[in-house]
Amino acid sequence: MVTPHSEILYIYALKSWELNEVTPFQGFAPGLIPLAPLLALPAFLPTDIEQLTIPPEDQMARRRGGMGHWIWSPVNLDTLIEKRKPLPVVPFMVLFTADAGVAHSVTKWRKTLTLKPLHVSTIAGVGALAPDELTLERLRLYCRMALRQAKTLQRKLDIGDSVKALDNWKPLDARPSSLFFHGHNVTVANELTLRSIGEEAPENSKGHLNVSEHESYVRGITESTQAVLKLHDAIADRAAFLVHPRQPDIVLVAPASYRRIEERAQHNAPSEIVKKVLRAMDRQRGFTLSLNAEEEDVDRIGPIMSERGAELRLQSLAVALRSASTLAATIRLPPAVNRTDGVVAQLSAHLRSYDNPPDSKTARVFRTVQNALKDAVPAEHLALMQGSKSGIKIIADAALEWLPIDGLPLGLYTDVSRIPVTPGNILMEQLRPRPPIQVRPESFRNFLLLSMFDEKDHLAELIAQAIDKLEDSKGRPIRGTRRTPRTVKEFIAAVNAYEGPMLIVDSHGQHINDNVAGGLIIGGEAIDIWSLRDQIRMPPIVVLSACDTHPHDRNHASVANGFLSCGASAVLGTVLPIRGEDAASFVRRLLLRAVEYGGIMNSTGRSVPWTNIVSGALRMQLASDICGGLKDRGLVTEMQAAELQLSANMDLNPHRKDWLHRLALRCQEAGGFNAVRWQVLYDDILAASDVIRYTHLGNPETIILSEPAMFERFHKAFE
Asked: In this predicted structure, what is the pLDDT of residue 709?
């Protein structure tokens, strides 16, 4: 007998569109905009037919462990009709429409099906439920009907347990809202997360954030973030988190437009008032847009404000559903973080001007960037980030990995990954839920290294030499496979033939300016990876050991975004040029950590998210740069440097948040210098290190290093 899957699919049908038909500021498919108000609805409904049969705290723990997300997806109408009908083994589908043409087509299509989806639409007269009619009881009735329909199509289908689960649904107990400030894009994610576990909607009219003082927005974000984080206390010690690691507990969101889009749009603006609006948008620093306009100008500026407002609303609700899925607290950052792009560009220009730039000058410029970022973020929110326990997810284009937290850039302080917000369609694709990918640590021995340097290039053999005789602590080799494609066709063939978890790209990268796409150099030519989307099958992990694969001071069409668009789940990209020997050392460390540390943690009964493997390798690389830097300056001996490195590695595996402070004290004692001298040395070494030049894109937290036997032991213990 076959049992049906328990998951409920929430599908958003939108009309088909061409690649050039996207919204102007951020690049969303136009059909997504009217669907935005419907994005929040799944958060009030179960993720599957079993969710409401388990205790509320267990439901929350399942979400924190990445196992209870809502399965939702935007789908073009043509694709829906051709490929996405419900099946007897996947019978539960709730289908949302918000366009008259799409709604009528869905109604017509449903009539041809025996196993029908539940149609919910904002369009009247199409035989669909209105959004406010989609209640828990109505969904349960639909699921019962879907099971009966599925049984008629597949007689061997066993629906007994599924029907029993539906009979045992127990709705969450309602409780009053814990919030005072509410009702704005800046708090909508936390509000939805709280309401998804039973809180009522906030009703205090005095707390409604609508053209409020800046401080009120900050307090509202802080209050709602703390309320969500407080939920984690009740489920902090779950044994399940040993094998299903907790997802990031904080999401940082900083909406952005295409780079310089407001500036470019001013050249073609039809009137001075429109230029004024675009300038105001380009310079906005706070949570509200301040603009003095006459009443007669409303008709001219209204469409622009409406278009951008619709994009922001869509993004806010999509992020809200993502955050609610993992019970993450969301900190909406002010637009001021995007205004730091000027000093970021100065740092980028400085570092591109030298092969080995002067440490003191680099430290000074990097400190300017960090100070600008720190000044742009409210102190209350910096404190919340410092308290993160399971990592931070960045949803932004700003250089937030460089934000200083307790002496370290955020990207090194904790485990961090990012989803770019431009283009909007990539954002939506990356926000969609992804089932966990289980990867055995041993499988990282089967990596694929694609080297595409010219044979005469001095960089050509650096990584190959660094890993040529790589072994784990037991002397077992970590070899992988190396290929040297010379054409795009050979590159595609090598990737498509690979069955393992990780591709390492060893090549030159370039992203000349904002007017062109980034390119990966293959056979001496810059190749736009985006163009390979329909030709290549990516492994889940891509490591780009190439320069400028996702620079902060260039447009969205980066090499790293291209690999995401081609299907990679996690892409380690570079925001600046990287140096060959340092890159080779890091790749070696990353491979060893994946195999060795991943295996050790599994042997103790713990899974490890890929985010931790990468972030941990970067922290270890920084520790190595510090110890090596002091040795090179003659401040410690080679033996002392080795001892300092060993002690730092012990603090980093597993990760102690105070590792840098402890290393600083040991370095001062070993070198005989004071804290002031340490700070100068550390600033120089940090800014010069390649570790600040990496950024981790996509959803690496969903890639879990785990042995199947470990899962079997865990689940048997709870049978």
From this structure: 82
* pLDDT in the model for residue 717: 61
What's the 3-state SS for 556-580? CCCHHHHHHHCCCCEEEEECCCCCH
CA 439 to chain CA centroid, nearest Å: 19
Residue 91 phi/psi, 5-degree rounding, is -90, -15
Q: 573, 614 in Cβ contact below 8 A? A: no
Q: What is the pLDDT of residue 296?
A: 66
Residues of the chain within CATH 3.40.50 domain(s) are 431-713
Strand pairing partners for 251?
330, 393
DSSP-assigned letter for residue 208: B
- Which positions of the chain have pLDDT values less than 50? none
Q: Tell me the CB-side half-sphere exposure of residue 108, using CA atoms within 13 A.
A: 8
Q: Which pLDDT does position 716 carry in this prediction?
A: 67
**Rounded to an integer, what distance in angstroms lies between the CA atom of residue 32 and that of residue 312?**
12
Q: What phi and psi, each to the nearest 5 degrees, are found at residue 658?
A: -95, 20
Q: Does pTM top 0.90 for this prediction? A: yes
The fold of the 431-713 domain, in CATH, is: Rossmann fold (3.40.50)
CA distance 150 to 619: 52
Alpha carbon distance 703, 707 (integer Å): 13
| Beta strand pairing call for 570-574 and 694-698 | antiparallel
Q: What is the 3-state secondary structure of 617-680?
A: HHHHHHHHHHHHHHHHCCCCCHHHHHHHHHHHHHHHCCECCCHHHHHHHHHHHHHCCCHHHHHH
Residues 6+ apart with CB under 8 A from 520: 452, 505, 507, 508, 509, 526, 527, 529, 546, 549, 559, 562
**Whole-number Cα distances in Å, 169 to 26, 199, 448, 659:** 41, 18, 47, 47
**DSSP notation for 257-313:** PSTTHHHHHHTT-SSHHHHHHHHHHHH--SSS------GGGHHHHHHHHHHHHHHHH
